[in-house]
Design brief:
mainly alpha
Length: 154
């Protein structure tokens, strides 16, 4: 079963920069870490999350938890891909994709979708290649989320 494309309800879609960059050898439609015009976190999606949760408090708590759990979430994913545990890898990558989408990390969510597709095909060679970019995108997403949202009112 294919997942729907990742967009916000306001019609926003993640930027699709050129293939030059860290994921150039894995497909031209994946986001790259060096695309200056693209944001790591889409503030419109965080605003929608706040609206859905009736205010910023729960949304900010979710974003804080997302950032705090990044290392654990990525470690679980990397371990599952490393040992080629398809069910555990799917569980971890789907969790990452959904949570990243919810906090506005659409570039990371698009990359997680590509990793999910590779895992579904049992292509763990491609999965290992994508993990490096997932790690980089995840750190950038968490960093921007902390700077522009979690800590903005502190």
């Amino acid at each position: 079963m294919d997942s729907p494309p990742i967009t916000s309800s306001s019609g926003g879609v993640p930027a699709q920069p050129s293939a030059a960059g860290p994921v150039a050898d894995v497909g031209p439609d994946l986001p790259t870490a060096d695309a200056a015009e693209a944001r790591w976190v889409e503030p419109e999606i965080l605003a929608e999350l706040e609206e859905e949760l009736d205010g910023p408090h729960l949304a900010q708590a979710f974003a804080r938890d997302y950032a705090a759990l990044w290392d654990q979430r990525f470690g679980k994913l990397a371990a599952a891909v490393s040992i080629q545990d398809r069910p555990a890898a799917l569980d971890a990558v789907i969790s990452l994709r959904i949570a990243s989408t919810m906090v506005g990390g659409l570039r990371l969510a698009v990359l997680a979708q590509a990793l999910e597709d590779a895992i579904r095909r049992t292509d763990f060679v491609q999965g290992e290649l994508l993990l490096e970019s997932v790690a980089e995108h995840g750190l950038q997403t968490v960093s921007e989320l902390q700077a522009s949202y979690i800590l903005k009112d502190s």
